[in-house]
Specification:
Layout lengths: L19 E4 L6 E5 L8 E10 L7 E7 L5 E6 L4 E8 L1 E11 L7 E8 L9 E5 L2 E2 L3 E5 L14 E4 L11 E10 L9 E2 L9 E2 L12 E3 L18 E3 L6 E2 L22 E2 L4 E2 L6 E4 L8 E8 L6 E8 L16 E4 L5 E3 L2 E3 L10 E8 L6 E6 L2 E2 L6 E2 L9 E8 L7 E4 L29 E2 L2 H7 L2
Parallel strand pairs: 22-33
Antiparallel strand pairs: 1-13, 1-18, 2-12, 2-17, 3-8, 3-13, 4-5, 4-12, 5-6, 6-7, 7-11, 8-9, 9-10, 13-16, 14-15, 19-20, 20-32, 21-31, 22-27, 22-32, 23-24, 23-31, 24-25, 25-26, 27-28, 28-29, 28-30
Length: 462
């Protein structure tokens, strides 16, 4: 089960990324730009940070440089989660396809790909690096002939997040996307191991680099212009991207999402960076990617339903999170609140626990895992349970990691849960951060309760 790996938890100090951009494949979302005369068509470097949405699905393209006649230079994930860095014109002229798979939806990966066809060493004409280390194991390892031009030529279109118009779009989050025209750089231009974190690869400020005539730098810091070239060149055009696609889920502060690696009995389509789950007409459950053992935490979700189906929100223990039996709410190791006011604890239910939930209502959940016993408190549209008294988690939750948990059963195609761990897939009427300044919630967490993210986990346990 992917939790928070060391590569996702960064120490204080150093360069801090501010924003990422969420690409939703279902929306056909991407950025594009027409290129001019390059600094050098034989040489470029592309660097980006990536967090996955869909895994083990269809082809997902991170970038593609397309020439009108059909030649293209691209990088994409296959349906089997292999990474491909290729140049193609009727057939492959260069192709690096990894043997390593990339399917961890909880992690931020850093990729650097280098095209340097003028290099006298054939094996150095296309190079791929992940988290600062060069990839050397490839299922396919074909390099271009010497001095072969890439697709970085005048009139070509550079797509970020798509292979072309409405074709093989990326799904997930991208941050710090750099296109360096005319230089073959190493990962040390974009990331580093430092004395504070000698085993953790983390970003460096790329703003001082020479980007070349066609180069650009996407920092995604302008929500009204996500295609802004922070290097000062011509901006990229946005297609099906909105201000709500700007996120603070970033390589230097990682947030949880719904975990697509959990395979319930009935599949739940996930969209918007694994923050929206559309439930089928049978009981299905989805946990978050992060498990918690200590600290005080807050998260929200919007219940959206067109048919008054059965939906629950709460927490689940690590020994139940892989459960694949139905119904998910009638088992030990779950503590849930449902829209009819129903409370379910370890499989025992009580009615009229709280008010009815209607479509569009925001449910808030506060967890105190430092108290003894651990407690949970639910909120409906910002109002706590009638006496505002936290409820004790049973002893079945002791000494176990605890995961946010979402359950649904709907015969409609409505998105039933829209989850907000601090980067909502919808527009809030007011963006309330926790007391450390992290997250954007509809309702402010109580004092001491924090957004679940790696910076808070690093300082406040978890």
């Amino acid at each position: 089960m992917p939790l928070i790996f060391p590569s996702n938890t960064l120490s204080a100090g150093g360069f801090s990324v501010d924003n990422s951009c969420r690409f939703n494949k279902a929306d056909n979302a991407y950025l594009s730009k027409t290129l001019g005369t390059p600094t050098d068509a034989d040489k470029f470097t592309i660097s980006f940070w990536m967090k996955l949405g869909l895994v083990s699905s269809t082809v997902r393209t991170i970038f593609n440089i397309v020439v009108g006649g059909g030649a293209n230079t691209f990088m994409q994930l296959t349906a089997a989660d292999l990474m491909v860095f290729g140049i193609y014109d009727s057939s492959y002229l260069g192709n690096l396809t990894t043997t390593q798979v990339f399917r961890d939806p909880s992690a931020w990966y850093h990729f650097v790909c280098v095209y340097d066809s003028g290099n006298a060493t054939a094996g150095n004409r296309m190079r791929l690096y992940v988290n600062g280390t060069e990839v050397t194991a490839f299922g396919t390892d074909t390099n271009p002939t010497q001095d072969l031009d890439s697709s970085n030529v005048s009139g070509a279109t550079f797509f970020v997040g798509a292979y072309g118009d409405d074709d093989e779009e990326f799904d997930g989050y991208l941050a710090e996307f750099c296109f360096i025209d005319g230089l073959a750089l190493t990962p040390s231009s974009f990331g580093e191991f430092d004395s504070d974190s000698p085993t953790i690869w983390k970003p460096k400020d790329p703003s001082g680099l020479t980007f070349g005539d066609n180069g650009f730098y996407l920092d995604f810091e302008a929500s009204d212009n996500l295609g802004n070239d922070a290097n000062g060149g011509t901006d990229l055009s946005e297609t099906n991207l909105a201000a709500t696609d700007q996120c603070t889920d970033i390589p230097t502060n990682n947030f949880p999402t719904i975990n697509p690696l959990i395979k319930p009995a009935a599949a739940v389509p996930l969209t918007e960076g694994n923050l929206i789950g559309t439930f089928p007409g049978s009981w299905t459950a989805l946990p978050a990617t992060f498990g918690l053992t200590a600290g005080k935490w807050y998260f929200e979700a919007k219940c959206v339903t067109g048919n008054g189906g059965n939906f629950f929100i709460g927490v689940v223990t690590e020994n139940q999170v892989w459960g694949d039996s139905s119904p998910y709410n009638e088992t030990t190791g779950v503590f849930l609140y449902g829209p009819s006011g129903r409370k379910t604890v370890d499989g025992s239910s009580s009615e009229d626990f709280f008010g009815d939930v209607t479509s569009g209502d925001i449910i808030g959940v506060q967890l105190d895992l430092d108290s003894d016993p651990k407690t949970i408190l639910f909120f409906l549209e910002g109002t706590a349970t009638p006496d505002a008294t936290p409820l004790d988690l049973p002893s079945t939750f002791d000494d176990l990691s605890i995961f946010p948990y979402f359950i649904g059963n709907s015969s409609s195609a409505t998105a039933n849960w829209e989850v907000n761990f601090g980067n909502p897939p919808y527009a809030n009427t007011s963006d309330a951060a926790d007391e450390n300044g992290y997250g954007a919630f509809e309702f402010a967490p109580d004092s001491g309760y924090l957004a679940i993210c790696s910076k808070n986990l690093g300082s406040d346990g978890g």
